[in-house]
Amino acid sequence: MRDRLVILGAGESGVGSAILAKQKGYAVFVSDSGNIKDKYKDILSEYQIEFEEGQHSDAKILDAQTVVKSPGIPDTAPLIQKLNEKGIPVISEIEFAGRYNTAKTICITGSNGKTTTTLLTYHILKKAGLNVGLAGNVGKSFAWQVAETNHDVYVIELSSFQLDGMYDFRADVSVLMNITPDHLNRYGYVMQNYVDSKFRILQNQTENDVFIYCADDDIIQNEIAKKEIKPACIPFSLKEPENPGAGVSEKKLIINFNQKQFSMSILDLSLQGKHNTYNSMAAGIASMVFQIRNDQLRESLAGFHGVEHRLERFLKVHGIEFINDSKATNVNSTWYALESIPKSIVWIAGGIDKGNDYSMLNPLVKEKVKAIVCLGKDNAKIHSAFDGLVKNVIDVSSMEEAVKAAYYLARNGDTVLLSPACASFDLFENYEDRGKQFKEQVRNL
């Protein structure tokens, strides 16, 4: 009798898991409570994998030996509670794929900067000629690649939700960018629960592995002090570099690792700003673990083009610059965005609040923001945070209205910044959809 594996969610990761499970001889069933995209339905049919959409059939799901769930389904969902009561293991796609993966892994997490760092690390390794895959929150499904591609290394971006479903998985190189309040609605509004989730990136690592982390992050430093950490610890900081470690000295980014030193002027980095210096250092250390030569590393750090929807300088219309930072789904990301823009800003914000505390933005908003356009179904928290601080705080209900209102409020030399500090699911499919709609409406001006 073949083991029965049920997959909840038929997006990229769910379909990838189904293909790997089928290849490994499981009896596979895929269930999605929403509509499955046609391209994924076609693939499931092609592989002769049974699926359902628009519902979850308890009888078929509770009959599983193992369940792989989409990271978007919270642990509090009634179906997940039923599976837990029956003692059926519920795991993530990364955990499942890790059971069959033989390649080395660089796993990157953090509240902010993880996508840029992941794509930058992948860019460096690929340009240096390594056979490398990109997976997790970006790129193709990890499970799908394990099933059908033969990579030597994977660079994997991991959210806290993915980490929550990982138990036996082990990263060869783990990277922790920073920890700031985010997704607290999924963690009972208890910060320590979220911190514990992020630190799961270290689980199962041995003395032969590497842990790269931001030494300027107080939450990370406090947590490290409480723990016995087995892998080699390599810090990065905007202060003088440690050995081993990365830092900045006399406007030079310096990395010390394995008796080697790498240095380049921070002015030559393709990604500018303090947060991007952190991203470049983390990616640089991870690459040096894989013995990338200094000249190759320098060339990649100088030539990398940024990430779509992350502080993407998009268009100028009548002297007004439009910046797409749709990927900023928490307050800390928006802080970086506001901090990096020198000019007078019309800020488009709002969406689904994840337990945000906007007070950390007050000094920057007071100094730089001339108007706020609230784009969401419930903007009460943004109003209560900024109504007395900014003269114009207005509500809109579509991206078309938001862009037109911002354009009307801005003047030659101003910047219109879409940096929502919130999730997008009230009005958009995801942050990419939100960013694409923003760019489309700016083009229409």
Gyration radius, rounded: 22 Å
* Count of individual domains: 3
Strand content: 15-25%
- CATH-scheme architecture of the largest domain: 3-Layer(aba) Sandwich
Mind sketching the topology for me?
Layout: E1 4-8, H1 12-23, E2 27-32, H2 38-46, E3 50-53, H3 58-61, E4 66-69, H4 78-85, E5 90-91, H5 93-98, E6 104-109, H6 114-127, E7 132-136, H7 142-148, E8 153-157, H8 160-164, E9 173-176, H9 191-199, E10 210-214, H10 218-226, E11 232-236, E12 245-249, E13 252-257, E14 260-265, H11 274-289, H12 294-303, E15 312-317, E16 320-324, H13 331-340, E17 345-349, H14 362-368, E18 369-375, H15 380-386, E19 392-396, H16 399-409, E20 415-418, H17 431-443
Parallel strand pairs: 1-2, 1-4, 2-3, 4-5, 6-8, 6-9, 7-8, 9-10, 10-11, 16-20, 17-18, 17-20, 18-19
Antiparallel strand pairs: 12-13, 13-14, 15-16
